[in-house]
Amino acid sequence: MECPEGTELSVSIVGDFSIRRINREYLGKDRPTNVISFSLQEGEFTEVAPNALGDVIVSADTAKREAEEGGMALFDRVCFLLLHGILHLCGYDHERSGEAEARRMEQKESELFNILKKEGLLNLTAS
User: Fold this and answer.
1) What pTM does this model have?
2) Calpha distance 16→94 (Å, rounded)
3) Per the domain annotation, does 2 fall within a domain?
4) Count of the separate structural domains present in the chain
């Protein structure tokens, strides 16, 4: 999916309690997760907000645990999860489309994350 100039995105940083509730209510999974995306470019009301790509919700609690486990800065982990969520909104899928699509998504995540590193926008150390 193309993201034309002027595309909007909603980002929420929440705790595990909130993301678990959202995961349960909307996705039927009664557990916290690191990131959830909801597209506004799918379904019957896409014309209501044609510039709105969707919503990305990141759990700061889960991101913190994952950052500590991975030896990376929390900011870097949150950025990675945000990229992951945005890629879902752009049509990438690692859960339902098979191994090839999962690899394609991982490659795009790495490519974008490396751009952020190269530009000095990430901490790259645990904090």
Assistant:
1) 0.84
2) 22
3) no
4) 1
